[in-house]
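Reopening this ticket.

The earlier resolution said the output was attached, but the attachment link was broken on my side. Pasting everything inline this time so it's all in one place.
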Amino acid sequence: MKRPLVAAVLVAFVVGDANRALAADWPIITATEEGVKETPFRFFGFAQIVGEANVLGDRVYGLTAPRLRAYEGQWATFNTLQDSEATWGLAVRRLRPGVRGAVPGTDQKITYIATVELGRAGVTRLTPATLMDVGVTFSYVPGMKLRIGQFKLPLSDEAVEANPLASELVNYSNVASQLLLENRVEGGKITSNAYGFRDLGVEAFESFALGKKMSLAYAAMVSQGRMGALDDDVEKDVSGRVTASWVFSGKRTDPHRQELSLYFWGLHGSRGYEGLRHQRIRSGAGLSLELEPVRLRAELTSAKGMVFLGQQPPFAGADAAVAPNGSALGFVAFGRVRIAKYLLVKLRYDELHRQTESDPDTRVFRTLTPAVEAQITPKMRIMLDYERRWIVAPEGTADAKRILDTVGDRVLLQASLFLP
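Inline output:
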């Protein structure tokens, strides 16, 4: 990861601001006011209401291990709603107001953004509200914008894209949700809100034109590994991303720029767990094409250390667990085609191999998600997803296989409204 990042920074200072790229990148969109009339305050926000039903699953019967008999006849947590024993329901998943703008008298060289989450999501698991993005960006140095605060890490496309503007499906893939979303666990209990792909730190970023059609973007970040509070140790995370793009059309502030891009990213850090220190390493690569009416993307992600396992065994009331020295490998492929002006059809396949370091503990998650989206207005869209799910334990115990055989599918309906 380090060599591509160094090369990107060198190119950044050589090219400078003289030749601006057409290609978009998410730090530019979320951290600057480029392309927007200068104003000290600009209010915005979005809401997402989700209806979810778990279908075709079964309660678990026939458990033989003494420690599992208490769960006989229960629903496994993968067949219920988040933090609930219900199998279907309606929720305001995200309700996120915010404000952004430029500091007067700086010619938009100092900009800021602040958002708060009020919806029922993992980031508000332990609190009714949480600060999501709180950042200030300085654009004085040619070839490098400097961002300070709390914001998204430079990880995979699925993690960095702004959900209300560019997310294609209701749920994140298993790869993103299990390997990149972070949950702190101590003593079998989740002790923090989910991190929402965010951290508190300092990031340098920029994008540049390399000729008429080629573009290069980089982002490098040093962060504390803990969102929303002062750090509790001296260890820090280092993460970065490099993207090379062939631009067909569109400005870099366009969330759906028309381009073919290849990207690499990585994160290196460590976490304290049960009195010991363990590495948390994530890395990946992806290829993305957006050229109306088609969008295609494929991503590969690997993980070493601090792999979150959820409740073990997967039943309400069981302790949460982490594999501190675990490893995992995941793949996501996605395709979308516009079949009418306001109607899109989509298909995603994701596969995650978790705890590959131990054959008895290895779990394989496979999900095939056909979906349809109706774009009611430029600011409102409705998505209907069907998640066909499989979870297998190739070398697991008979009880493990019996539990996983009960996994059902999900049907999700989401209405999104973005303002202004």
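Reporter confirms the inline version is readable. Residues 1-23 have pLDDT under 50 and may be disordered. The helical segments are 2-15, 26-31, 157-160, 163-166, 174-179, 398-404.
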